[in-house]
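HUMAN: Would you supply a protein with fold tokens?

ASSISTANT:
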Amino acid sequence: MDDAVQVEAARIPDRDRLLKELRDSGLDARPVDEVGIEVPVEGDGDEMADELFAHAERVIMSIGAPFVPIKHEGTIYIRPPLS
């Protein structure tokens, strides 16, 4: 394992739903602290972060949650809209 992509959700239920979706997609995602997810990656972590970002967007749209993913400094944050 070269690196890991970090994902931070706003609430535990959101983290749990995204964690399940990532695992169902075959990723070795694991919970970290209360609302975090860590996804180990090999090779290009930036490319994997972009794929996880797109996956998070699809999950959020499919459940109709009022949240948006924001990628900042290697971490993907799942937060309520800013405005």
